[in-house]
Amino acid sequence: MVIKSLRSRLILLLVGLLALVLLAVFVAVYTSTTLSAERQAARQLELGARVFRSVLDARARELATATQILAADFGFRQAVASGDLPTIASALDNQARRIGADQALFFDAAGELRIASAPGRDGQAQIQAVASLSPEALIAVIDQQPYLLVDAVLRAPLPVGEVAMAFRLDQALADELRELTGLDIRFVSSYDGEVQHALSTLPAAQQWPPGSMRDKQTLNLDGERYQLVQLSLLEQAPYAVHVQLISPLRDLLASFAVLKRELLLITLIALLASSLLAVWLAGSLARPVASLADAARRIGRGDYQFRVWLKRRRADELGMLADSIDLMRERIAEREQQLAHNAMHDPLTGLPNLAMVRERLQSAVAGGQSGVLAQCNLDELAQLVNAHGQDLVDNLVCQSAERLNAALPPRSLLAWQPGSGFVLLLEGRALDDAVLLVDQLLGLLADKLQIEQVKLRPQWLAGLVEWPRQGSGVTELLRQASMALADAEPGDHRVAVYQAQRDEAYQRRLQLARDIAYAPRHEELSVVYQPKLALASGQVPQVEALMRWHHQRLGPIRPDEFIVLAEQTGSIALLTQWVLNAVLAQVREWLSRGIELQVAMNISALDLEDASFPEQVEQALERHQVAPRYLSLEVTESALMREPERSLASLQRLRDSGISLAVDDYGTGYSSLAMLKSLPVQYLKIDKSFVLQLTEGSDDAVIVRSTIELAHNMGLAVIAEGIESEDTLHWLQQRGCDYAQGYFVSRPVAAEVLEAWLGEAQARFAYLAEREVGVSPSPV
Ligand code: G
Ligand code: G
Ligand code: MN
Fold it and tell me: Which residue ranges does the record assign to the GGDEF domain (predicted)?
């Protein structure tokens, strides 16, 4: 098992260490007490052995004296001398009883045992072994039993016999010795190593097994420990008599047992106490660590709203760590707050940014709130920046932000978004109300300002959109507001409200602007032709080529709509090239079939401003093998006026190469005929707005008539377009107009239709040549 927790590990380590130390102490004390008990026992035994020896010696001396007294007795000696065995036996008996001997023996002069006071089963006593114990005493084995033996020689005066008194090494002796030595005594007589007879003061020792006994040893028997010394009293193989002095260790150990119990108790208490201490210590280390780890986890989760501290203040490393972590938490919180602020605020003004508006709007919409989003920006911002520099404008914005902020109504959010200007979110406000409010606010901003010596009267405009009625996403609403803003104008209309129809038109414009570049590739373009009728002859020498775009999804798109977009998006050159090629291919085809028509093509101001355009036209003519006189180019009056010098160069070059040129839509611009005089053009097309409602006596009639006259004076042929009736046709013919173009003559039609029409037109307009004409047409 792997212990993961620091606390458990510390506890385990400390407690383990303590247990080890205490165990060592316990073992040391325990073994030393046991050793000391054993040593004490050994000393006791040594002492006991000496005491035993001297007691036995004293006893032997005492017995020897008694035996000598018997041997000195005259009567006894006489009885021995006379060989009176019964008397000897009775005297022996008496004497033995008197001195408490267990056996009295009589040996004759030849050393033969004649009388034994306590004979064995065979009526005699068998002396099996004898050994000297001391000068006065012997140890003998008689009838397998050990005896202490003292003898005395009987002299009369020559030795006539010998008496011996034998004292059994018996229980009484053992008890007595035990009294004196304080040790247990065991007498053992053995034959050939086998115990024959044993007695002991220690009941347990009686049954001790036989075996070789060393002189000193420790015995473990029946759970008891004994220490003993063995003294050899007789050693006469196969007989041996030993005495063992035994000291049971139990008593000695018992005196230590209390000590040991106390030691064990003390050890246990120490272990318990130290374990508690270890637990506390480990806790006091591990708990702060755990609580700091917990704090770090909380910080990791982004929770900074608490103080990192330890339950107990501490001045150590952990306390320092806690302080550091708390400092870290504070700093991270600060920084995160700063980041959050930055994410939601604009650095220039310090106002909230779009992200904040988006959030507020989302929650307002989710909460079923309605309101108005306004976008306010400086009129002619680009010019302001150009004139005074970005810094000044930034300064102006900041001052305006302050003014607005001070005047904000409740439940509104003012934001600044670079590029979009001020964005104002007005919650719970109706549109009318919002228009008034925003107008007031713009009024505040319109006051004169002085910034760095520059006096300004900034014009702020606003576009408003209502949510959620008109939209609910910030991006959508901002787009709508900025469309409304585009409609706003300084003055009474500085606050404009978004209108959905405009949005649709805007979307359509956006799509067309995007798709126009692909129209040639997608083969969505085509050319139609509208004839121009020569009023003097009734012939059709020229047609106008008009481009058509059939958008695959939106259907037919009129040039009025897409030409402007193509000009804005830079696709116009592409379209012009396409038309040029289509027209020239058609002219080539007509010429090959004998149809001679001059085709007038419309070009844009941008085409004229492109210096390489004349060359491109020339190359196209060459490519299609069409003579320049079959091509005419129509340029609107306003296009000519845009970059007169550059246009003039191109016009001159085109004219020089033999291409006809016409001023289109004449009358819609501000050019004067005098100005046109300097241009190398041959045709003047009077705009259809003057022709459509042409009636005698009207302003249009005056303009058209004088224009025809003046144009003729300058050598220009006049084309009137927008002729929708025969009257108009005739009126124009009467006034000397050279060419007529209009629905009355023919609508713009496809090439094949035009061919068919040409045949009919011949007959239809032949009469014109016969008519009386007021003013003679000028030659072209
Ligand atoms: O036919 P109609 O509605 O087609 O023409 C509208 C306007 O589009 C006219 O003023 C005409 O000058 C312009 N226009 C038509 N075709 C072209 C073209 O191929 N190039 C340019 N630049 N203008 C064209
Ligand atoms: O300006 P420009 O010459 O490019 O004008 C050609 C435009 O005039 C084309 O859009 C053509 O459809 C339109 N147009 C030609 N004849 C008439 C007419 O009789 N009435 C009206 N309303 N438009 C005409
Ligand atoms: Mn035209």
Answer: 369-500
Binding site membership of 148 for ligand 2 (Cβ less than 6 Å): no
- Confirm or reject: Cβ of 723 under 6 Å from ligand 2: yes
Topology match between the domains 34-203+212-252 and 523-668+741-769: no
**How far apart (Å, rounded) are the C-alpha atoms in residues 654 and 639?**
16
pTM over 0.90: no
Q: Give 169-191 pLDDT, tens digit per residue.
A: 888 888 888 888 888 888 888 88
User: Does residue 34 have a pLDDT over 90?
Assistant: no
Going by alpha carbons, the residue nearest to atom 13 of ligand 2 is: 722
- Closest atom of ligand 2 to 685 CA is 3
Question: Are 446 and 399 within 8 A, CB to CB?
Answer: no
* Domain 34-203+212-252 is found in CATH 3.30.450.20: yes
Q: Which residues contact 553 (CB under 8 A, 6 or more apart)?
A: none
Three-state DSSP class for residue 18: helix
Q: Check pocket membership of 604 for ligand 1, CB cut-off 6 A.
A: yes
Q: Where are the domains of the chain?
A: 34-203+212-252, 257-341, 354-501, 523-668+741-769
The residue whose CB lies within 8 Å of the most ligand 2 atoms, and thus the one to mutate among 547, 564, 688, 690, is 688
Amino acid (1-letter code) at residue 84: D
- The single-letter code of the amino acid at 178 is R
Q: Is residue 96 a contact partner of residue 113, using CB atoms and an 8 Å limit?
A: no
User: What pLDDT is recorded for position 1?
Assistant: 56
579 lines ligand 1 (CB under 6 A): yes
Encode 473-527 in three state secondary structure: CHHHHHHHHHHHHHHCCCCCCCEEECCHHHHHHHHHHHHHHHHHHHCCCCCCEEE
The tokens describing 415, both together, are: 């934001």
Range of weakest confidence among 75-84, 627-636, 648-657, 706-715: 75-84
| Residue in this structure with the two tokens 């016969």, named with its chain if needed | 770
Q: How many other β-carbons are positioned within 10 Å of the β-carbon of residue 675?
A: 14
- Model pLDDT, residue 539: 93
Query: Six-digit token pair at 384?
Result: 């302001």
The pLDDT value recorded for residue 780 is 42
**H-assigned helices in 692-780:** 699-713, 726-734, 751-765
* Residue closest by Cα to atom 1 of ligand 1: 546
Burial class from Cβ neighbours inside 10 Å (0-12, 13-18, 19+) for residue 375 reads buried
CATH code for the structural domain at 523-668+741-769: 3.20.20.450
In the reported structure, the alpha carbon of residue 10 is separated from the centroid of ligand 2 by a whole-number distance in angstroms of 100
What distance separates the 2 farthest-apart alpha carbons in the chain? Answer: 226
pLDDT in tens, 395-421: 999 999 999 999 999 999 999 988 889
Q: Which one is predicted more confidently, 347 or 738?
A: 738
Mean per-residue pLDDT over the chain, rounded: 87
Nearest to 458 by CA among 450, 467, 448, 466: 448
| Ligand 3 ion local residues (Cβ < 5 A) | 602, 634, 664
CA distance 619 to 771: 43
CATH architecture of the domain with residue range 354-501: 2-Layer Sandwich (3.30)
Spell 719-756 as b/e; 16+ CB within 10 A means b.
bbbbbbeeebbebbbbbbbbbbbbebbbebbebeebee
SS3 551: strand
